[in-house]
Amino acid sequence: MSSQEKVSEELLLEEEVITQNEIVLYNDDVNTFDHVIETLIYACDHTPEQAEQCSLIVHYKGKCTVKTGAYDDLKPRCSILLEAGLSAEIV
Q1: Which of 11, 45, 59, 84 could be 39's S-S partner, Cβ–Cβ 3.0 to 4.6 Å?
Q2: E strands present in 1-91
Q3: Per-residue pLDDT tens for 35-87?
Q4: Within a domain: residue 45?
Q5: Does residue 1 lie in a domain region?
């Protein structure tokens, strides 16, 4: 094994692992599609199409990941969803 191969292996092992958190939105029998869509557009910077697709996934599958990223970015977004009466959590 050449010294160049050893250096390449060491660099691969030292890569930093970045953890991505997710906001998961859960289905409920209270909120309308319009309310969910409007809230996702506002809280998660979704396009209308993204928000509509997420609302349909939540309706039919029971839950949907609506935003991924760093915890510090997701916490205020999740708080907005909760304050709007939606069921969500950061995982």
Answers
A1: 84
A2: 21-26, 63-69, 87-90
A3: 999 999 999 999 999 999 999 999 999 999 999 999 999 999 999 999 999 99
A4: yes
A5: no
Can you say whether the dihedral through the CA atoms of 59, 61, 62, 66 is positive or negative?
negative
Q: Which of 80, 29, 34 is nearest to 59 (CA)?
A: 29
Q: Extract the tokens encoding 41.
A: 């557009």
Name the residue with tokens 């969910």.
Answer: 36
38 lies in which domain range? 18-90
- 41 domain-assigned: yes
Note whether residue 71 is domain-resident: yes
Q: Give the pLDDT score at 19.
A: 79
Structure tokens at 81: 């969803």
- Please, which residues bridge with residue 69 across strands? 21
